[in-house]
Each structure stands twice: as C-alpha cells, then as structure tokens.
C-alpha cells in the first residue's frame, strides 16, 4: 500500500485529536456544558473571546444556525481574525498589558455571567488578563487551551502564569506546540495546523451538551435556525426578541 499523501495524513491527524478530546476531555466538556446551562437557567449571559486564529472557534458559536442564541462575542479591536493591517499587529496586541481590563470595563459583562476564553498557547498577556479580570468581576471563566504550552513554554504575562491558572474549568485541546501536525521532505517547516478544527469541535460539543442538559431540566433552550430554510428568519426573530436583554450582537 502506498504511503498516504499529506491531505490524508492531515485528516488522520485531525481525527486522532478529535478522538482524544472526545475521550479524555469528556468530564471537562460536561462541566462546561453544565455551567452554561446553569447560567442560562439563572438568567445570566454568555460570552466568548479568542484572539488571532483562536477567534475563529469563538465566532463559530455566535449567531450560529443550530447554535445557542445567548452566546455573545467579546470582541477586542485589532485581534479578532485578520481585521488589521499588517496582520502581525494582531499578534503584537495580544502581548499588550492592560488591554483586557479596558475591554471588560466597557463591555456588558457582569458578575454571574460566563466567559469562555479560547487561546491555543494561553501564554500571552491578553487571554491571561482577560481571565484574571473577568474572575475579579465575579464572572465564571472556561478556558479552552493546549496544556502542552504551559508545560514546555514560558508565560509572556508578568505574573508568569497561563490562562489555565485563572479558569474555573479548563478544556485541553491536546494540540502540540507549534500547531503543525505534518512534516515532509522538501518542506522546511512543519505544516498542517489542526487547532481550529479541534477547538471548533470542542466548542460545538459544549454547546450541544448544554442544550441537551437544559432540555433534560425541562427548559427549551433558545436555539437559532438557519436563515436559509423556510421560516428560519421568523423563528430567529422570535428568539432574539424573547431573549433580547441577554443578546448583544445586534442593534437594539
């Protein structure tokens, strides 16, 4: 049998990581889902934050067909994806002290809410301070990160701590340092990053589990439907109106 080509190798690597997080992080995923369900049931609000490419799994659960309507993106200008030029500025902003505090102070986040902080390395100032400051406000924090970085790299925050050190619940994405699953002759650098695939799946698993837990409690979770199916816009309009006091991603 001939050796698999890089595309097949990448799929195998991603599937292997997905199996690991499914099996090894099941308890933490369930804990995170319970916290989301508790917050929804208690009238709290849900927020998610990620910088750089870690913003992609965060955005994937906000205003999402088949997703929970109450999840809001906590956006930091300049670090959400590639919304600045040059793109390297976004990486630099992740290392700026004090930015997280300024964002939280001007956001609707308040005590009793939940904030999911997504950071692959968990070592930069922005995600560390986001978690620290949120907890100081009485916000419960779920961290989604790779614990390998805390074991083999140094924190860039003045405290020497990582995101994992300031969370109520931590979910380990199992991504290796460098976020590149493949190597090959003729390609000098490792390639094939899988963090977006795995972290997006983790986030969707947490949301799905939270919806299931709410239903088990007799609470119909406020889920959004696709706007590309008949009746979808009308359904979403009713959900957004009913829960408008906890939804911040639309104009009022």
From TrEMBL:
UniProt cross-references to CDD domains, sorted A to Z: SIS_RpiR
InterPro entries (UniProt xref): RpiR-like_SIS (IPR035472), SIS_dom (IPR001347), SIS_dom_sf (IPR046348), SIS_GmhA/DiaA_subfam (IPR050099), UPF0309 (IPR022951)
One Pfam family recorded for the sequence: SIS_2
Gene3D superfamilies linked: Glucose-6-phosphate isomerase like protein, domain 1
Domain SIS: 36-219
NCBIfam families, sorted: PRK02947.1 (NF002805)
PANTHER family reported in the protein's UniProt record: PHOSPHOHEPTOSE ISOMERASE, SEDOHEPTULOSE 7-PHOSPHATE ISOMERASE / DNAA INITIATOR-ASSOCIATING FACTOR FOR REPLICATION INITIATION
HAMAP family, per database record: UPF0309
Family, per entry: Belongs to the UPF0309 family.
Protein's UniProt name: UPF0309 protein ACFYZM_30765
Native source species: Streptomyces nondiastaticus
Organism placement in taxonomy: Bacteria, Bacillati, Actinomycetota, Actinomycetes, Kitasatosporales
């Amino acid at each position: 049998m001939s050796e698999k080509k890089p595309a097949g190798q990448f799929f195998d690597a991603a599937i292997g990581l997905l199996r690991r997080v499914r099996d090894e992080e099941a308890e933490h995923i369930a804990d995170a889902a319970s916290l989301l369900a508790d917050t929804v049931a208690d009238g709290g609000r849900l927020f998610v934050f990620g910088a750089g490419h870690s913003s992609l799994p965060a955005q994937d659960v906000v205003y999402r067909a088949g997703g929970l309507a109450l999840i809001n993106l906590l956006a930091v200008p300049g670090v959400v994806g590639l919304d600045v030029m040059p793109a390297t500025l976004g990486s630099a902003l992740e290392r700026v002290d004090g930015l997280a505090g300024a964002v939280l102070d001007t956001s609707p986040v308040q005590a009793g809410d939940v904030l999911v902080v997504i950071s692959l390395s968990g070592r930069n100032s922005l995600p560390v301070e986001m978690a620290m400051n949120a907890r100081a406000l009485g916000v419960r924090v779920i961290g989604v990160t790779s614990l390998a970085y805390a074991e083999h790299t140094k924190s860039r925050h003045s405290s020497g701590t990582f995101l994992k050190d300031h969370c109520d619940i931590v979910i380990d994405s199992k991504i290796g340092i460098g976020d590149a699953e493949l190597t090959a002759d003729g390609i000098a650098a490792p390639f094939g990053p899988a963090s977006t695939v795995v972290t997006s799946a983790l986030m969707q698993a947490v949301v799905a589990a939270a919806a299931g837990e709410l239903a088990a409690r007799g609470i119909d979770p406020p889920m959004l439907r696709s706007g590309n199916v008949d009746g979808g816009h009308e359904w979403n309009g009713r959900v957004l109106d009913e829960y408008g006091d906890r939804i911040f991603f639309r104009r009022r």
